[in-house]
Design a protein that fits this description.
It is built from 8 helices and no strands. With 234 residues, the protein is mainly α. The N and C termini lie far apart (84 Å).
Length: 234
């Protein structure tokens, strides 16, 4: 009877040890509250790192797993640091380009046109911020391409005066994505409204040409400013 009880005890102990070993291998030592890496490293030191049958493969398994986990963690840290560095560089570039634009002096001839507009010396239908900087199109009174582009550039980077229609206050702050979209949409609206009029074909051609130029000149910067708004507008 005592022999039978001893045999059952040994059998139960073997089953428990087998379960424990499988749990450690398949699900990790946390299942039983152990630190897998430390426990098996200690076991390795205990056995003198000898090639002990049954133990050495397990030690190698957990050592490889720990090394792989550390490698992945290091890779994740590296990628995060690189992404943060790229983000900072892009944000600094956006701020620098924005500041350079808004601090650029307004040419004297365009300043005269701006003062004349505010004094009431303006003839035309479009009393928008484009007209404020002296932008004009068409065959009769229109400006040449380069002069129109200079005025679009100024309009993109200046404050819009309160004297203009309140709806234009929604054009956004100087040198921002919103200002870019407002100018681009306004040029498209002007061209679309007059596209069917034969006497407006030169004006329509100017608006379409200028919209294409403006998009090519500022789209990339506008996208950058959209992702990283200038600090003064936070």
């Amino acid at each position: 009877m005592e022999f039978l009880l001893a045999a059952l005890f040994i059998l139960a102990l073997l089953v428990f040890l087998l379960w424990l070993l499988l749990a450690l291998v398949l699900r990790g030592a946390r299942l039983v509250g152990w630190d897998t890496d430390i426990s098996f490293q200690r076991a390795g030191r205990f056995f003198g790192q000898r090639n002990v049958p049954g133990i050495s493969p397990i030690l190698r398994f957990f050592a490889d797993r720990a090394a792989e986990r550390e490698r992945r963690a290091e890779e994740a840290r590296r990628k995060k640091a690189e992404a943060e560095a790229r983000e900072r560089a892009e944000r600094d570039r956006a701020q620098k380009e924005h500041d350079a634009l808004v601090e650029r002096p307004i040419p004297p001839d365009i300043k005269r046109d701006m003062r004349a507009f505010l004094d009431g010396s303006f003839v035309g239908e479009d009393r928008s911020p484009l007209a404020y900087v002296g932008y004009r199109v068409g065959k009769t009174r229109g400006l040449v391409s380069r002069e129109r582009q200079r005025r679009l550039d100024v309009c993109f980077r200046i404050e819009i005066p309160s004297d203009l229609d309140p709806k234009y206050q929604g054009w956004g702050a100087p040198a921002t994505y919103q200002r870019f979209r407002s100018i681009e949409k306004h040029l498209k609206m002007l061209a679309d409204m007059r596209s069917g009029r034969s006497n407006q074909r030169f004006a329509v051609a100017d608006w379409e040409t200028d919209r294409t130029w403006f998009q090519g000149e500022y789209r990339e910067l506008a996208g950058l400013l959209h992702r990283h708004p200038p600090r003064r507008y936070w």
